[in-house]
Amino acid sequence: MKILISGATGFIGRFLLDALLPKDHQIYALVRSIPDRRLGPDIIQLTCSTLNALDEQIDVFINLAGENIASRPWTEKRKKALFDSRVLLTNTIHKAFRYPPKCVISMSAVGFYGVAREDIFNEETPPKSGFSHELCAAWEEAAMAFSRAETRVTVLRLGVVLGVGGALEKMRLPFLCGLGGPIADGKQWFPWVHIDDVIKAIMLAMTDQAYAGAYNLVAPEQIQQKHFAKCFAAALKRPALLTTPKWALALIFGEMASLLTQGARVIPQRLEEQGFKFTFKQIDKALLDIEKRHSI
């Protein structure tokens, strides 16, 4: 298959390339400038300006690009950067295709549902308002625009993706130092998914015509943040005693602190109805697996 990936050098992109390259696909990577030396010679590099010159139809476009939503406070400048790296870029890529791809697999996030503790969110549950919902909704709308050209579009609303690297790596040092623990009261929901299940879902959506529309890509086990903290500390053989107060997060992160203190309870209803089998259903086993890989 001919596969184009945006965000190929990111956390998910690196794992996806490891899965795709041995399978004799022709891989194209959308980059800001050529050459991007983080990519190997067997990957054809394109920019948005050169994509239009591609004189063949892409079988699958996998849209992973987007700046980290939780890396900095949500200033107005930061909100624009988050919007541009997702929505504007997706629209630009859409316009750049000479021939529409047969299939588009685009990322989104459980932030689509907004900030809420009480409700249980499947794919049909009305979301709460707020910046995270507005950003994800606009991103999904940009991806779904591909379907007007008879392209099959799958949108994956990701929970916190756990693997060697990514968000877990940023949390690793505080927990190793015994400084990890619950955030605020720890009762906020922590929708998560192992990187192996993310790659598995993407690979299935590439070929299975039944995958269309939006899916919650989160593990079926619904846990609160304090349970995650306990399991991560246990995997590292450390205590999880210290609590990060809500006021401190609000002081540091402003509006973005809601992502850490008000997580929604999200279930993978459509995936399970479609027969998707999660490799990692329990957080303790997922974290132990990742820690084992980290030590190799």
From TrEMBL:
Pfam families, alphabetized: DUF1731, Epimerase
NAD-dependent epimerase/dehydratase domain sequence ranges: 3-216
Domain named DUF1731: residues: 244-290
Family: Belongs to the NAD(P)-dependent epimerase/dehydratase family. SDR39U1 subfamily.
Protein name per the record: TIGR01777 family protein
